[in-house]
């Protein structure tokens, strides 16, 4: 390590120290920080703060939800000069529902300052650990855990999905659109409801074929569902199905490879899935509905580092907070249509349109 | 070499061989095998918390193993443990949630019983079809797994008004115990292990000490001979599947009333039921053997979680290493043949 970096790290640490000291009421944070500093040497040159996450069964490379969270943590780690491992940042993957408690516990025991549970599936596990380890700082995405040491993060998926619906309705030539969902759970229903509302806002006559595959990790189911939809004349499919959605991409890419003029599009979800849709020089990704889990994870980590961990609160990220939105379409959507989408976006931000959250 | 020595030597050598090959794989992929196995060991026995969690993981494996082993002794291949477990899980959770003001000594047994009955019913259908219409139980039980998965998912949605979770069971139906949790530093160890061990005894008792057990085994050995001897083959086939299903249902109760304390909508199978097949075969379909098989499976399964945590070995490599260890233990038969050949040669000289 260069001396310069050392000095920088030291000043960051000092700054963090003063900030923490300023926040006298938050004794817990100081305590945990002190503990983690003793055990490991490299923390001295960097910010004295560590953060970790537990994935749900999708795994850290699911190309959407978990991956997005991990990217947020990695970015946070790099920005603060942390290294992967103890006293820095890390993740653990869960192979089954039974592993959540163990993984969360392992990370808490390794003295990470904040431990994230990614996904609503971990709601009960986070709740248990929060009670058993009152000194730990936990955070959960997509669920609310009402404990003083847990920060809950929710997204207004319906608002982002609404824009995806607008984009799909304006771009569709066959006037048939598909929606492929993962499990039929409240979070995914918000995607569906928002998407349908967006399509309807543009053209109520468009039919949307809504299908749930019942799983987030079955690409083959996504592929067969997409195959059926495209064969029936659907030209744009929006998926909210995690790993299952990779099958939707696979089907679209297969069709595009066979016939470069095929009019098949996929709208990605959670992170920018442009890379996922590349076929030679073309791409089947129309756009992606971003759910900025990375941003939320980053912000909570940052707040916690500054001694302002939002424990006991739930934060909702919508369009106005830029927690959801559309990814760069890279020219797939022409400018005039982008302008229309932008109008809808402004109306939602201004509260002129309220996107429904649940099915009526 | 004496038989006894071989019986002890074979599993031991198999485990060592499995560990060695696993170590080679870690070495080739650039991870430290010693660190990896130390993490595995710590994951299983490292502290009192790990031990508690390991026992918790073993509990459903014992019951799932019994469910396969019991049917196997009657000559039936019960692939439907997964489905029987899932319906048992739901039944126990539902009883746990639906009744709120029952005293614990009624509520808990009722919930456990509900799981056993639900599992038994799920075993009864393939048993009946096999006995009366000669439909092969492998096909029926596999299909019943899917029916169980999606029917319970629908039922959970129905009872929770469109949600994905039944909600937490009442305290009076819980197998969890503050005493055991306090003893093991907040692990999820619960009293279910006592039920599982009791069932091991029950299986041994039925098979070895009762007339019914004798008949069940006889049907397993030779259906025609049993029929000739005046036994009711159909009745025994159905009975065997019902008892096996009840064991599997109890495994579900362990998850519903012990580990999770709720039932949630599932995207896929739990895997416990399928692992139960391996557990039973590792244990040579005997009650005590199942306990050993389940211990091996449960301990490896749980301990392996610590390998990415402590040694940084990726999950994928861990899965390969664990599979190889189990693979070698299961192929102990080959080793046995080899040893017998050596010893017979020596005797010939």
Give an overview of the whole structure.
- The complex is a heterodimer of chains A (360) and B (349).
- Chain A is of the alpha/beta class and 360 residues long.
- Chain A has two domains: 50-154 and 293-317, Response regulator (Rossmann fold, 3-Layer(aba) Sandwich), CATH 3.40.50.2300; 157-291 and 330-349, Rossmann fold.
- Helix content of chain A is 43%, strand content 18%.
- In chain A, the strands form three sheets. In chain A, strands 2-1-3-4-5-13 form a six-stranded parallel beta sheet, sandwiched between helices.
- In chain A, strand 6, helix 7 and strand 7 (207-212) form a beta-alpha-beta unit.
- In chain A, helix 4 (99-109) packs parallel to helix 5 and helix 6 packs antiparallel against helix 11.
- Chain A starts with a helix and ends in an 11-residue tail after the last helix.
- Chain B is mostly helical and 349 residues long.
- The model of chain B has no long low-confidence stretch (mean pLDDT 90).
- Chain B has a domain at 60-302: ABC transporter involved in vitamin B12 uptake, BtuC.
- In chain B, helix 3 packs parallel to helix 8 and helix 5 (104-133) packs antiparallel against helix 6 (137-159).
- Chain A: Residues 50-358 form the ABC transporter substrate-binding protein PnrA-like domain.
- Chain A: It is a lipid-anchor.
